[in-house]
Amino acid sequence: MAQRIEPDLQFIKELQEVGGESLKKCYQCATCSVACPISPSANPYPRKEMVWAQWGLRDKLLNNPDIWLCHNCGTCSDLCPRGAKPGDLLAALRNMAYQRINPLPCIGKWMTSAKYLPILAGIPALLYLVLWIISANFVAGSAFPVAEGGKIVYGELFYELYFIDPVFVTLAVIVAGVFFVGVRNLIASLKPEGQVLKLGPGADKSWVCCLIDVIKEEVLTHKKFQDCGADKADRKIGHMALFYGFVCLAVVTGLLAAGFWTQMILGWVGIHVHNPFHTPMSFANPNKWLAIVGAVLLLTGLVLLTVRRLSLDPKKSASNYYDWYLLGVIWAVAVTGVLSMLLRLSGVATLAFPMYYLHLIAVFMLFAYLPWSKLGHLVYRTAALTYVRYMGR
Amino acid sequence: MAEKIGVYFDKSSIGPYFDYDELVEFVESKFGGLCPAVKAHPLLAGEDGRKMIQQDLDDGVIDSVLVCGATPRVDWEFYKFGNDVLVDRVNLREHCVLSYMEPDGSVPELTEDTPELLLALAKDYISMGVTKLQKCKIPHPEEIASSETILVLGGGWTGLTAALDASKAGHPVVVVEKAAELGGYAAKMFKSTPLTYPHNTAQDSGIEAKIAAVQADENIKVFTSATLVQLKGAPGTYEAVLSGGETLKVGAVVLATGWVPQSTDVLKPLGYGSSPAIVTTLELEEMAKRGELKAGAKVAFVLNTESCVGPEAFQKLEKCDEEAPAEAAKPAAEGEEEEAYVHEDLETSRHLPYASAVNTMVVLKQAGYVADNGGIAYVFYDHMIVPGIHERFYKAAQDKLGVMMTKAAIAGIEPDGDGVLVKAADTLIGEDLEVKVDLVVLPTGMVPATAKDPVMNFEYRQGPAFPDLDLFDGFADSNYICFPYETRRTGVYAAGAIRQPMMLDAAEDDAAGAALKAIQCLESINRGVSVHPRSGDNSYPVFNFVRCTQCKRCTEECPFGALDDDEKGTPLPNPTRCRRCGTCMGACPERVISFDTYNIDQIGSMIKQIHVPENMDTDGPRVLILACENDAYPALDMAAQRGHHWSPYVRILPVRCLGSVNAIWVADAMSKGMDGVMLLGCKYGDDYQCHFVKGSEICNRRKTNIAETLERLGVEPDRVEQYEIAIDEYDKVPVLIEEFLAMIMEKGPNPFKGY
Q1: N or C, which end of chain B is more exposed by having fewer CB within 10 Å?
Q2: Per-residue model confidence (pLDDT) at position B314
Q3: Which chain A residue lies closest to B405 (C-alpha atoms)?
């Protein structure tokens, strides 16, 4: 049955705005699909996505899980004889998806251009400024409180119980909710291109099994990055360093919270215990070691990925604001975090607290906007990979 | 007449493999006073060597020069000593030293101890060379005061450009245009495909400026609403009769009458005629020019033509093939008064795919009209044919938001309500699809004007039109790849869409090329020399009419129609139409036609110089190779230069064209006792490569007669064989020679040997 075609020119324009500006240059030679190290042999991407994009076939593109299979190594764009940048198009489609599948798409839109940066940064800046003023007046008694012995303790000003955890716990709940809705929207829209017959033991795996397999076989090992080719090794190492850096810091933060709340809750019932992770932690504390390892991994990954992006040939592959926003925020988190520690140790309260304030803003920007930013792939790519694995693509 | 021939050996070309004293002595003892100076020089192709020859000439010791050394294809300009000194060459390098091998196939390391067979080879070639010069005369061509005027037929883009170019070169020009206005199709276009850098946007052609420039040029005379009724005479002294009754003296002609749109019947399989919303690119162009293209329109462009080029079209072509020879044969057989000429309509459905490159470019341009006007243009194609620099235009068209392209097979084009439904299969989208559009645009076939009409109306014995037009479906040029602009009539040069479908930029180049060819022709005529491909040759055919039997073979076989008849039926030569190929000489059974530097007696005498040993079993056979000097001879040179070798029993004799080979030469060779004759010519047939168009084809026809004669004499006819060699097939020639010799060895000696 022939399909009636109605091109959506507006959609092509939108795609071109979010990073696919060269998509019209494709002349369908299929070099990209052949070159891609991880594209499946049946209905491979990204050739078909290119022609759909050129023809403005909105529905086909939005229902396509293959955009999530791509790990953006850029081989296709490197080899494209027309400079059509298929890799960038798939990235653009993912960027578009972040806006489309998440609730509150306006946040996604704010991530497309530098002109919205004041809004994104302004929200946490205002929030923490208010909290700072409240604490200075009612809790800490000073805007730059210094503890006994001239020590700086950030908890004196931004007391965990009142200021840190309520905000981030609320955020975590909201972000989890957004991801839930987003994943549901994503899965509902997907119609896989081509399926393979599932045979043999374990053919009918459950969703959970598939998810576990994806995490075990692909996420933790970065196997797809490996498959993307040895020439992209810096990208794999950079991404992995960043990934495990975040894992370390998540463990550190988790232990901090766990220690604090255990002591707190037990204190309410009259049992007084020592919190091994009381901040600021000493350098003898293993959790501190982990924090430092995490920070070093984070910075290593950032350096590698930033250098790679800066050295990209703009004729082959372009970095857009989406890419730079995420890298910038992570840089901000890492740099302000490390400087906060150094300034704290140096004992200059008037510099240390503003730095910690900036750190809080950066962390807020990273986590609160997670589903709409490129980092949303943490959840959505995992979900799509699980889906295609479940569908047998 | 060469009476005192200086023979010079160039040691640097040949190498130390001969005892030059022996060679000198051989020439002196054999030819005596005919060769008063016989010398070997260590570096003849140097200033010193040249000085030595010049000294002998100045001293009056010699009157002509025979250089024995490298192939005549090199240094030919170096060995020029003026028009009054005959020069010839003996190829002792390629055809002796480099290609030598023993009869058993082994290639010896050559030393100063010359193998006997190599020495025999060299002696034969030297004797042939001396004899050739001996039988040469210095030609004294007639210098014709030619008209400087160039007639340009067609006042369209190509014709106007040619007129301006010729005028700029100082020639008076006459432009004859059939329509009432100048400008042709270029003036009907809304925009042209890109003509200038960066070659990515449709632009105004600038035809108005071109028309104005022609009208303002005092050197150019324009006749509109006029056609050429008759072209009498020969290049340089043509008389052009126009439909208005004017008679003009012109020297040469640029043919730029362009194309006519093919009948739209051919587009019926694509739905043409079933809806007013299905149009051709030509019609859309006119709509755009009138500003009738709606904003925001959806338009489907279809470039697929396979469904239109069906078996019917081929039937029509086959019919042409059958009829053409029949027509040619009739007057030859009967010799009756000719019937009135009827020009067969050569339009076929194949003119549609022939125009595919033009249609592709036009569609890219028109898709731009639609997309720039807020619409959507779908382009369905089987082949996206964008020649050369126009790839940039394709890229630019692709980049337009509203242009959607896909390779596809067209499954249907049907009227649907107020629009048309186009169905496409095998698309790049990956599935069959259909689009509803406001307009469907189909390609336009371009039929050259010469397919419909003689156009030239030559007053030539061979008829008013170009011959063999059916070979090219009516396109007027004769050597499509090698010699652009040339036609089968000397002095008439084709440019633009009459030659092949093309766009304005290519037509502009064509116009300049054809105008230059026309000028070159006039500049050759007034010096009495030949035009391309024997440019500068000052020999010309001389007729000994006393012995002519009015058999008309020469007048019919001349590829360029150079010969008319006088009242008695005797051939009437038109030297300026002639290209000096010698086909007439090869045709003449009475051998009344000759050139001062190339004639029956000369070649026959050269063949007689070949020493044929009586006993083939002990001294080997001898095989004569008559090699076309345009393709086969260079191929042999290349073979030798690239380390191929061939039997020492063959003797190579270059001829101007296989068409010039007279049967008597073969008879000479066979009666002399040679065991076989190889005729090496170029490819013939539909995609012939012959410089003189018909040479090897005619030779092949004559060969049948030769074979019959041989059979009567009791000689196996397959001792004479013709081969088709392209210039790049150098690796093939030695193999052919080897196979031929093996065949001869098996057959045994020529029964005439020893008589």
Answers
A1: C
A2: 45
A3: A55
Domain B542-594: assigned CATH number: 3.30.70.20
Within this chain, domains B150-261+447-525 and B264-310+351-444 share the same CATH topology: yes
Chain A partners of B414 at a C-beta cutoff of 8 Å? none
Least Cα distance to B150 among B24, B255, B229, B23 occurs for: B255
The domain B264-310+351-444 belongs to what CATH superfamily?
FAD/NAD(P)-binding domain (3.50.50.60)
3-class DSSP assignment, residue A85: coil
Q: What is the mean pLDDT of residues A165-172?
A: 88
Best residue in B372, B407, B410, B429 for a mutation probing chain A (most A CBs within 10 Å): B429
Nearest CA in chain A to B421: A4
Rounded CA-CA distance A81/B674 in Å is 62
> Domain B150-261+447-525 has what CATH class?
alpha beta
* Residues of chain A contacting B423 with CB distance shorter than 8 Å: 2
pLDDT in tens, A206-264: 888 888 888 888 888 888 888 887 777 788 889 999 999 999 999 998 898 888 888 88
B634-664 per-position pLDDT tens digit:
999 999 999 999 999 999 999 999 999 999 9
ipTM confidence score:
0.78
Q: What element of type H or E holds B543?
A: strand B542-543
The minimum CA-CA distance between A387 and chain B, rounded to whole Å, is 23
Return d(Cα A194, Cα A44) in angstroms, integer: 9
Query: So where are chain B's domains?
Result: 1-138, 150-261+447-525, 264-310+351-444, 542-594, 598-755
pLDDT (mean) for B570-593? 94
Walk me through the domains of chain A, giving residue ranges and CATH numbers: 9-101 (1.10.1060.10), 107-391 (no CATH)
Q: Mean pLDDT, to the nearest integer, of B405-434?
A: 93
CB B325 within 8 A of CB B470: no
* Distances, alpha carbon B191 to alpha carbons B207, B282, B283, in Å: 10, 12, 14
The reply to whether CATH 2.60.120 applies to domain B598-755 is no
pLDDT of amino acid B322: 46
Quote the pLDDT of residue A201.
53
Q: What is the mean predicted confidence (pLDDT) over B156-163?
A: 98
Instruction: Determine the average pLDDT of the residues in B240-260.
Output: 97
Quick one: pLDDT at residue A224? 84
How far apart, in whole angstroms, are the C-alpha atoms of residue B90 and residue B66?
A: 7
Residue B35, CB-side half-sphere exposure with 13 Å CA sphere: 26
Q: Cβ separation of B406 and A51 shorter than 8 Å?
A: yes
pTM: 0.85
